[in-house]
Design a protein that fits this description.
single chain; 183 residues; alpha+beta; two-stranded antiparallel sheet; globular
Amino acid sequence: MNTVSVVEMSTNLILGTEASSTASAARCVEEVKESLDETWLPRIYRKRILSQRTRSYHLAASSKETSIKVQHTLLGVELKVGRHRLSCPDLATARYLAVFARAGCQDVAVPYDITQTSRLADELESSWQRMLLLADHLTAERSAAFRSRVRAMLIRNARREIKDAGAGTAIPSFNQNTKQRRA
């Protein structure tokens, strides 16, 4: 056996291992999504948030991991995404937006009805934590690189599905019918 064939065989073995590792990571991602079912973050976004009247909100989030903090200032509540500060009307909205900022979403829909925001923020935060816990549980016996690959794939899938669902309109539509008719 010459050295060229040995190099080719080892290259094929490495590439085959990498491809099987990627396929294995994809299987873990699908398993997490199936386990979460109705509590999968993009599904909550499509069914619970986009089904009601919303307004779009642009986040200064990036796809790479940045620090996300909810801060209380003298002027109110702010969401700090990396170096950017976003003013929020209340704590519930900041918590709501923080979940999407962690996922790296650029544009999201925010419920127009502020009484819904707190409940939805709870659901989204729970979904986010369940997703990460399930990923950690499924990859507990694997290497740190594999665990981080599965987490990154999960977050990338969630971000893509949320982006595909859309951010709604910039200004919600209102019923302008003000005529009163006699019965």
